[in-house]
Hints:
CATH architecture of the largest domain: 3-Layer(aba) Sandwich
CATH class of the largest domain: Alpha Beta
Number of helices: 11
Order of helices and strands: HEEHHEHHHEHHHHH
Structural class: mainly alpha
Number of domains: 2
Helix content: 40-55%
Radius of gyration: 24 Å
Strand content: 5-15%
Strand order of the largest sheet: 1-2
Largest sheet: 2 strands, antiparallel
CATH topology of the largest domain: Rossmann fold
Oligomer: single chain
Amino acid sequence: MARKLFFRFTHIMDSTLPTSPPNDSQKHSDYMLHARTGSDISFFWDPFLNTSRTFDILQRTTNGTMADERPALLVLGSGLWYLRYANTSGGLPSWEANMERIMKILSHDLDKPADQVVMLPVEQVIPAKLSYGRALSIRSSDIDAMNSDLHHRINRPWQNALSVHMPSLPLAFPIVFNQMLDASQTEDGLHFSNSLVDLQANILLNLRCNDFLPKKFPLDKTCCYAYPWPSFLHSVILGFAVMWGPIVYLLSAQTGKLHH
């Protein structure tokens, strides 16, 4: 799924770039593409997110470009392979341990590995459409538990009885990706249509780009956009409008008391 998201993302950036691997034998490969706009887009095949290269990227310790120039966007995705191949991957316990390690790096490293870091939710499946082997190992209840775990790790819930709230980690968690899924958009219950994945790719582009667009009328970018503060005059007018109701109410109450 992450591979398909990568290819749809790159194709939106540059329609001349490929939309899939050249053939099935190269599905589990790395890809480095260059868009006509000058952007370099890289995909690293690591479905378990546990290779030394992945952790080098997270800690920005790789040789060459990655270490010298921080990427604009880093998207991480993992989960279903831990369920599908639990006998060799270690299953949920191994996934939890690896997520703990990744989150610890992201929470303690002041120098983020990218301007914007995204942790993809574990993609929900359509059980009725899964093959027999996939249905046995990939269960919706496990996916829900994994996403709940990610949500609480990223958003840092109340930690103890003293109600000390820890700040959220500096990464996005687009759980809306799972809310977009529809059974009509998949044939195998696992891989979804190009049109749906294009919407997900556009969300990533909006997340990275919208806030850098000029903040002037018309403010027509509604996704992932920090709207500017109103001017002093607008603030005064807004404040007066908000306070006018309570003022009128108090004056009316005082007038009523005087009449009584």
